[in-house]
Amino acid sequence: MAATPVTFVQAVLLAFRKYGVDPAAALQQAQIAPSMLRQPQSKVTARQFETLCSAAMQQLDDEALGWFSRRLPWGSYGLLCRASLGAPTLGVALKRWCRHHLLLTDDIVLSLEVAADVATLHIDERTALGELREFCLLTSLRYLHGYACWAVDSRIALRAVDFPFATPTHAAVYPLLFPGPVRFDRSHAGFAFDAKYLDLPMGRDERALRGMLQHALPLTVLPYRRDQRDRLLVQSVRELLRQRGAELVNAESLAHALHVSLRTLHRHLKREGASVQSLKDEVRQSRAIELLRRTRAPVKQIALELGFRNEKSFSRAFRQWTGASPIEWRRDATVTSKARASGRMKTADATGPGSEHA
Q1: Do 221 and 54 form a contact (C-beta atoms < 8 A)?
Q2: Numbered ranges of CATH 1.10.260 in the chain
Q3: Spatial separation of the C-alpha atoms in residues 292 and 324, rounded to whole Å
Q4: Which of 38, 132, 230, 328 is most buried per CB count within 10 Å?
């Protein structure tokens, strides 16, 4: 399917113009007719664009395609991948990538920041990127996201993707490149994601890296394969249900909040041996037990807080979970708690000052 706007093709051709090289051979190799370049609304396939970029990088000996003040020779990004591969976790790998990127160029500076449960990769522009700004920032983020997904074998969902320029006419292509909401006119380029991904172990070795580098450009042109799992999806569903369980009442609303299709949500959960209903029951049961044990809230109030229509439906579900009604469970828990407290007091009396064991 043709989805890559001709604007990106023209951005690659700017590199040929910068170095004074004729792009005809690369265009012919990618089977892109010169007439398409004069049609602003035309598009090429991902495969055509991948072929064009590969030909341009090798012919110009610049993997940055003219973005920076000096060339990045063929193999530069492969070195970044290899330097990060031995990291114990994704977080360490991304920090190495950002640090080592400075050895290639300081025209842009990459950084990883973590605040609370959100990790953010920023791009700080240190020089004017001119006509190539959009393509440089977009591709740099795609490199990072594509490599991160590949390294931990997980389709990393993004909470937000930011760009510091106005909404382009071809903005519709951005959701195809990034699995998360895209925002324009922001202060910096970057993307944010769940910080828990940073703790995932690196799951690739040198052999896998060599195979990936032979076909690396699809990681830039297309998102990580959608048939691959998101290893944090089950955790993300649990967290959303804990925080917004009353609001996210069905699978459709959960899928929308996670920025995935309903089909993708069900498929990934099934692969992990879970379902929306089982996770909902798990979270509700845990919260119900917490409220019954630690508060004196009426059962009716707890039922409504957990998203049940009424006390009766909550009691029926709770009995299925525990074998007891909420009232019975709270009563038994109270008796057990008092018995434990009494036992602790007797122990303290027996071992305290003045006892026979003193």
Answers
A1: no
A2: 1-60
A3: 13
A4: 230
Percent of the chain whose pLDDT exceeds 90: 41
Q: Taking CA 275 as the corner, what is the angle to CA 291 and CA 314, rounded to the nearest 5 degrees?
A: 35
Q: What string of DSSP letters covers 156-223? A: ---SEEE-SSPPPTTGGGHHHH-SS-EE-S-SSEEEEEEGGGGGSBP---HHHHHHHHHT-THHHHSP
Compute CA distances 291 → 241, 286, 309, whole Å: 16, 9, 18
Helix (H, G, I), strand (E, B) or coil at 33: coil
CA 337, chain centre distance (Å): 43
Where in the chain is CATH 1.10.10.60?
Answer: 233-333
Contact (CB, 8 A) for 155 and 226: yes
Q: Within 10 A of 348 (CB to CB), how many other CB atoms are there?
A: 10
Exposure b/e, 233-262, CB count within 10 A at least 16 = b: bbebbbebbeeebeebeebeebbeebebee
**pLDDT for 229:** 52
115 by Cβ neighbours in 10 Å (0-12 / 13-18 / 19+) ranks as exposed
Query: Homologous superfamily of 233-333 in CATH?
Result: Homeodomain-like (1.10.10.60)
CB atoms within 10 A of CB 170: 16
> Would you say 191 and 141 are in contact if contact means Cβ atoms under 8 Å apart?
yes
> Each residue of 35-83: pLDDT tens digit?
888 887 888 887 888 889 999 999 999 999 999 999 999 989 999 999 9
Residue ranges, the chain, pLDDT below 70: 1-2, 215-232, 246, 271-273, 335-358
Write down the residue that tokens 């089909």 correspond to.
263
pLDDT at residue 215, rounded to an integer:
66
CATH code, 1-60: 1.10.260
Q: Which two tokens stand for residue 136?
A: 């440089």
Rounded CA-CA distance 1/320 in Å is 49
